[in-house]
Amino acid sequence: DDVAVLVPAAGMGVRLGPGAPKALRTLAGEPLLVHAVRRVAAAPSVGRIVVAAPPDDVESVVALLRPVAHVVVVPGGATRQTSVSLALDAVGEAFPIVLVHDAARALAPVELIERVAAAVRDGHEAVVPVLPVVDTIKQVDADGRVAGTVDRSVLRSVQTPQGFSRETLVRAHAAAVDEHTDDAGMCEKIGVAVWTVPGDERALKITRPLDLEIACLLLDLG
Ligand code: C5P
User: Fold this and answer.
1) Under CATH, domain 3-128+158-221 is a member of which superfamily?
2) At what angle do helices 80-89 and 166-175 cross, to 10 degrees?
3) Residue 69 confidence (pLDDT) above 90
4) What are the boundaries of each domain within the chain?
5) Which atom of ligand 1 is the closest one to the Cα of 205?
6) Of 37, 83, 182, best ligand 1 pocket probe by most atoms within 8 Å of the beta carbon
7) How far is the CA of 147 from the centre of ligand 1 (A)?
8) pLDDT tens-digit map of 187-197
9) What is the Cα–Cα distance from 161 to 101, expressed in whole angstroms?
10) Which residue from 8, 9, 62, 203 has the least number of CB within 10 angstroms?
């Protein structure tokens, strides 16, 4: 029980189309956030979960997550980075390892959560799960003209949960000036070496309408 998991869930989910904040959209009858938090709580290393909820929905999120153990809910902020920072403030010093996990990756399996935590426990200050890039990636200029093809063999897609020693994550957030799309990026900025472990396709980020359909199929497959 040396791991705390921060779950930023305060985003509106604009790319998913109009409706409730993304973490509260339903998948097979339950909010994405409930799917995500239930999986996190099932990981044996996890002793605390801090959810950053949409500020107007804190009470309903508390009610939704009441059946899940170890959960604390705080109001999120205007950006993902602020939401993570606010959740981090609510983690006690009892947890030397902190994972940051998007509510949108609602189907991340327990093995992935444990793999990331184990790499931090092994001494890596910052750890990201990665997948190879399958598409050919091109750089395109403002007019739509291809400017070049990037060597995809050196590229990886990065997922969550990302894992950190608590002290490193606190330091990275304290030093951050501009906005980053992930927490490992903030660690890179202060010179921390970031380690990779294999990701998992089931941890897809539910972002666009088709992703919800795929997630539904994955749930049916068990
Ligand atoms: O917007 P993006 O897809 O990067 O969001 C990733 C995660 O960060 C989602 O789980 C979303 O709910 C969360 N988020 C947040 N606070 C914000 C914006 C996004 O907690 N202000």
Assistant:
1) Spore Coat Polysaccharide Biosynthesis Protein SpsA; Chain A (3.90.550.10)
2) 130
3) no
4) 3-128+158-221
5) 3
6) 83
7) 31
8) 999 999 999 99
9) 4
10) 62
Q: Characterize the bridge pairing of strands 126-132 and 194-198.
A: parallel
Q: What is the DSSP letter of 142?
A: T
- The response to whether residue 6 sits with its C-beta less than 6 Å from ligand 1 reads no
pLDDT confidence band for 9 (50 / 70 / 90): very high
pLDDT of residue 76: 97
Q: How far apart are alpha carbons 207 and 13 in whole angstroms?
A: 7
Cα(149) to ligand 1 centroid in Å equals 30
pLDDT of residue 222: 75
* Structure tokens belonging to residue 210: 């088709």
Contact 183, 114 (CB under 8 A): no
Using alpha carbons only, how large is the chain's radius of gyration in Å?
17
Report the residue count for the chain: 222
The predicted pLDDT at position 13 comes to: 86
The letter for the amino acid at 41 is: A
25 pocket-lining for ligand 1 (C-beta < 6 Å): no
Q: How confident is the model at residue 172 (pLDDT cuts 50, 70, 90)?
A: very high
Q: Model confidence at 58, in pLDDT bands (50, 70, 90)?
A: very high
Token pair of 208 as six digits: 């666009």
Q: Which pLDDT score is estimated for 161?
A: 98
Neighbours of 177 (CB within 10 A): 7
